[in-house]
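A protein record pairs a chain with a discrete description of its three-dimensional fold. The shape at a given residue is found from the number at the same position. Here is what such a record looks like in full:
>
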Amino acid sequence: MRSDRFGLRFIIAERSMNKLTIKVCPVCGSAHIERAMTCIDHYASSEAFYLCRCQDCGFLFTQDFPVEAEIGRYYETPDYISHSDTKKGLMNKVYHWVRSYMLGRKARLVAREAHRKTGRLLDIGTGTGYFADAMKRRGWQVEAVEKNEQARVFAKEHFNLDVKPHTALQDFAPGSFDVITLWHVMEHLEHLNETWDILNNLLTEKGVLIIAVPNCSSYDAKKYGAHWAAYDVPRHLWHFTPGSIQRLGAKHELILAARHPMPFDAFYVSMLSEKYMGHSLTFFRGMLSGTLAWFSALGSKERSSSMIYVFRKKQK
């Protein structure tokens, strides 16, 4: 529940049958919500979930998604490679090759945007710890947080990283970090506005928040529609565009300072989307679609399959 400026009370979200129904847009607060499309969970359950759109600001989100205590079972599959680290199959091999290449690019982007070569960095949703390890090797003081216990164990065994559970966020002191990163994590977090408040609080006054999320206004999102793999229901709760995430940041006194495309994502997402549509030759079809998406993003980076957003604190 929350109050509007006239003192009236209205419901933001309703919990029933272990699912969360959003009643009010998390970005603009509008109650004008419409159903947009129905998507299938192709990874774990084959269940159908529908997406809703705010009629006022256009923000798109998954409706009636499992609550935090229940959603874990939708990640329990060997195919969920950000946690399992499997290299089985051609698409997963491509994923790992791209990740290896992107680690260097991400590290350079952090140093460039933070205007420093070392500092205090918090990686939220670190998964199996590859990025946190890469930054630690470059001299950064790294804290890493991850909800999945198996992923934390992997990070300890392979990188000797002491990754904390997600509840540790409340234990860090205000102004603890020069850089906070969330690589394809924000779309998973149930408590959206609360998370943004926490991030603002944990940053130093000149700190940098770096967020990577899928872009549901991209070339490949429009091409595949409800079959677009990056909708990834019900694991992905929120579906951002450059405009909606900028507005969300501003709501929490964070200014969007830069945007960077992630063109490689279009290849992997397109391959999965072709698979979900039941097509043959998914690798080659995905490569073709990914190439077309790449050229589309060259013309306008706002059409990139995924985007990296750099936020800075609003100076008082």
Q: What stands out?
A: The CA atoms of residues 110 and 179 lie 8 Å apart. Residues 90-114 form the longest helix (25 residues).
